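Appendix B. Extra example for self-study. Work through it before the problem class; the solution is given directly after the inputs so you can check yourself.
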Amino acid sequence: MTILTDPPKEQFRLSMLLYDTRYRSATIQVIAMFAFMLLAAWLINNAYVNLNTLGKPISFGFLGEAAGYDINQRLLEYDNRDSHTRAALVGLFNTLLVALLGCITATIIGVFVGVMRLSNNWLVARIMTVYVEIFRNVPVLLWIVLALAVLSESLPLVKSFRGDDPETSMSLFGMLAWSNRGIFVARPLMTSLGWLVPLVFILSIFVVRWLSKRADRIQEQTGDRPKMLWVTLATLVVPAAVVLLVVSQVTSRTDYVFVAAGAESPASLAAFAEETKINYCHASGRAGSLQGLNYLEAQEVAAKRRNYFSNSASATAMVNEKCNLISVPASKADALVAELSGRLKAGTPVSIIPETFKEGAAIQIEAPEITPKGIARFEGGTHVRNSLLALWLALSLYTAAFIAEIVRSGILAISKGQSEAAAALGLRSGKTMRLVILPQALRVIIPPMISNYLNLTKNSSLAIAVGYMDITGTLGGITMNQTGRELECVLMLMLVYLAISLSISGLMNVYNNSVKLVER
Amino acid sequence: MSDVSFVRTEMLPEQDPPGSEIGAIGWARHNLFSSWINSILTILSFAAIYYVLAAALPWIFQSSWSAKSLTECREVFIEAYGTTHGHACWGVINDRWLQLLFGFYPSHLYWRPVMALVLLLGALSPVLFSDKVPSKVLILTALYPFVMPWLMWGGTIWAPICAAAGFGIGYAVLRFGSNYIGELGAMIAAVVAALIWWLVLSGFVSDGLSSLLPIGIESVASRKFGGFMLAILLGVVAIGVSLPIGIVLALGRQSDLVIVKALCVGFIEFIRGVPLITLLFVASLLLNIFLPKGTEFDIILRVMIMMTLFSAAYMAEVIRGGLAALPRGQYEGADSLGLDYWQAQRLIIMPQALKISIPGIVSTFIGIFKDTTLVSIIGLLDVIGLASAIRADTAWNGVYWELFAFIAFLFFVVCFSMSRYSMYLERKLQTGHR
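Solution. Structure tokens for the complete assembly:
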């Protein structure tokens, strides 16, 4: 008889938590978690205690308060009575603007330099190597400060554009001025239906793409490609041109004209202003935002005496009798009425006249003009300041050096057999590059390219060194200094950058996956 | 019919290649003028080079080294060349180069940063050129972390000795404890003992010893640090400390332990997602809020901590790349030899993974070294901060290019030599055959 005994059941002992690999990992993790939570709790508790002692417990209420500072380079409408949130948003758009511009130019320069470094022209390849080494090995902050110095020291003074025979003349037929204060460039202004023109143009592009696909299909089926040039040109130009003409002829709109300080109700605003030599003000609701979008009549009437004011400012002006006549867009009329009532002297007659304006050309080009006297400055057009230009230039050139290296190594990573096989198929070198090398090199190039775009975006925070108001300059700069809310501001700043970084890398990963080789 | 066929029976002598294919002309034909588009590019390049040199060379060499102010420079230029433009006023560098290098470090103590730098090169030499320098120099490397802060900040000699003693105590506990409480227990005991020593005891001991035997050198406050010295100091600390932290983080990210992995990933992605400048804001404004009340430690130390964390996250990603590039067989081979985790990492995985990651590690080093200039934004007087300070002086108001050129030159020399060294290291460690 044999007695079968079970193997002795292993008792769980405490030491097994350390010495048994089955349990050890759990032990380590629990300890790690515990230590992490302890550390976090300690830090948060410290922050809580310290902030309470300082008398500023965490709150985000300051975000709604008026910011009280100006942002001179901006994409969104903003003035210093807007909230800190609005200022941060303006800053965010500025960050995105410089990041986008920088990524585009850095890619163009980088690809050019990277390809040129592989050129069989010895001299060109050496020059490009020197460029890459110089830019990679010097801090980006220095490049940014240097770019600002170059722009503001070496470009012509604004003053030199003035006069009958100016020292410096504007380029691009008077559309663009390079000056030491930045670039002044003409901008398109749209009337109320002007947006139809670009819309139609974009639709035409889609139609053209559809047409070219259709041409491809026909070519595949019959071997003949239909002649497309004139059709394409016509599709692009004709509809947009028609819309432009029609909109320019047709559109008009009714605005309200307020006439104060004893003026009679005029038959026509233009005639009235001409007759009485009154001061004409146009209230846009926000200072400067409609600066160029004035009405033809008003331009003719009082080119020299136009004053542009925000709603309350024009009300103030009317009270002070600087303007005897104010026109406002219909949508702003109620606000102005509210502003005026109670501010004008009792008994001041105010007439409200609906006036219909013909708006003129659907899209007008407003070129910058130098002021004829007084302080020399450009009026009209868009002002791209040196701070933005310097940041853009420096970030592009700096990042381009890295992108060039990525492009070069990407191209070198493609084995020589590929280009030899392409040559054996009879492809010319241009087509070899376009159809064989680059599509394969892209797979090597894209992941490091993404991280360089991210670096560029993060480096754009150095804007603070040249005074460009990006999100670091607004939320992490003036807002933080004014409100003294360091913790909240830095936290939000970090979250914003984290969100930007994660979304860029997310988007780029989607793209990366779409071009990835499908493997077994 | 006669046989007219002719068969040559001896070889013709080789002819020289045509003159247009050899020598300088041949080289130029092949490399500069091989096609019409290349010829155009070459001519354009020569034009560009001429344009740059025509502006740069007179600027650099027709310059003034001795002037004591910008106005003096301009007078000299007017006298010599008739114009103020296009000539460098190197007088500013001549006047202020010590300040640009050392900041406001007391001038009679300049030997200390210089000594620290020399010792740094000595301490690095066995690491950088392991085949040429005797390995005994490694003792210097081990001592350097204690000597360098003492040289830079000065003070009593007992502080660095006590800091070093912590490691000695830990090692002693490990050595003797392992006989009684097992290896793991001894390791924990060693860490605890060292921590207790550093946090609680070493302060008293150091104070006591320095009152008994006051040996020390003049101490220098952190706010006097500046210039290129500050960049090197921050760079060296961040680089040196971030490499081990980066290795640990990379291993954590690769590990099977879910929670450890999550913590590492969270840390790395967070740091990599925000710009360094926000971390420097944390260093200058927030770090004190997160520490117990009354903890005051100086701004340079805080900046060092944040820069180290920053570069550690980048380092971790570079090393993770190296780890991922290792073939799976290496891990399995290590397992099959019966090596435990740390042995496998130390003997098999890390030597190969680090070798693969050398280019990435060095470019992270270069990046972090360049990024030290950002401290000028939070008000430390590094080279760029000093450049603005110098410009604020009436004598040098308006000097831009000379200062920028000097700063760029300093950084270029250091970064360029680092990248060349990485190429040398790659070649040296190249054990495969090509």
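Self-check: Residues 182 and 415 of chain A are 47 Å apart (CA to CA). If your reasoning did not lead you there, revisit section 3.
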